[in-house]
Amino acid sequence: MLAKRIVVPLSVLTVGSAAAVFGVLNADAAEITGCSVTYSVVSQWGSGFTGDVKIKNTGGTAVDGWKLGFVFPSGQTVAGGWNGAWTQSGSQVRVTDAGWNKSINPGGNVTIGFNGTWTGANAVPTAFTVNGVTCGGAPTSPTVSKTPTASPSASKAASASPSASKTASASKTASASPSASTTPAATTGPEDCTDFAALVRGRLWVNNNVWGKADGTGSQCVWENGLNGDNLSWGTRWTWAGDNTKVKSYASAVLGWHWGWKVPTGTGLPVRLSAGKAVTTDWNFQVTQTTGNVMNVAYDLWLHDIANPDWQNNPTDEVMVWLYRSGGAGPVGTKQATVTIAGTTWDLYKGNIGWEVYSFVRTSNTSAAALDLTDFTDDLVARGWLAKTKYLSSVQAGTEIFTGSGRLDTTSYSVKIG
Fold this sequence. Notes:
Blueprint: E1 19-25, E2 34-45, E3 48-57, E4 63-64, E5 67-71, E6 77-82, E7 85-89, E8 92-96, E9 103-104, E10 109-117, E11 127-130, E12 133-136, E13 198-201, E14 204-207, E15 216-228, E16 231-242, E17 249-256, E18 271-272, E19 279-289, E20 294-304, E21 317-326, E22 334-341, E23 344-352, E24 356-362, E25 368-372, H1 374-382, E26 391-417
Parallel strand pairs: 21-24
Antiparallel strand pairs: 1-2, 2-3, 3-10, 4-9, 5-8, 5-11, 6-10, 7-8, 11-12, 13-14, 14-17, 15-16, 16-26, 17-26, 18-26, 19-25, 19-26, 20-21, 20-26, 22-23, 23-24
């Protein structure tokens, strides 16, 4: 999710299916000579919603540091945001760059997002400024879904790497050549190609999460083939083009929280790390690449410092466990160590995208895993990076796609808490 990478790819936070686009040229501004802002309502439910804002530099000079301003027309409030420092006074909202994303080259853009509340109406703002330059125009009314499905995550992130290096390289950390299969598992369940579709099966649900869709072109579908005991069979297929340093999607099987709760009971989550409960999982899958892909197959664990997080509560920590990668995909942050867990070696990366992101990248690809995921959180606790007082709120298993065409067939997947 959200979220929640670089090639070294970096995931890009939240996307919206309905947008109001504004643009104007102002030659008097010193730092930015032209700007456009795209405001999107990603999802809306009850009294809450998730918003996405993309700032584009349409001028001819680079921007080094930006401040966005706009006014909520209907009394909306920001509950929490990412990829910038968000403040609100009355109806006035101000967002300052997060440092690592302060530079916007000509033709480039930065995506930021937030969770908010509304009552009565959720009208689109009609005026934006960037560094004092007005970016204005006539808005269009957004169309929104009724459930919070977009993911502000690491992979739920940003348009530039928050690491010391600001330049992504598509050839860095290239993995072993992917294996292609000509006999993927048959699709027995109906496909759902709706953005952010949620297919609930028992305690689990399959999330057709396409939060990076705005940074490319293409589509993604998901399906589920039913449960066999505690084992879920599901799959996804995709075709994505565009910037190969930005994640377009993370179709996944979700247990627990994902900016809200699709299955509110029976998940065993959240659970405090200090409780010492095992998180055992078995996953057997098959990757079929129709074209060359920049992608990974990974677990995504989310942690909070509160016992009852809801849609408005961003995580404090994210732990990824990469089982498979191709096309040079690599995690956010920098490599800290190589560790041995569950009899296998993993490269450990550490980064920050508004919360801490830890990624264990298997040094050789696999298509099957039988793990206790607390072995990975225990490693982080032992390093003093993760507090045992934190609550594990979500366990997800899926595939991040940057570019390419293919499919993932999960023949069986299970996860158990305790």
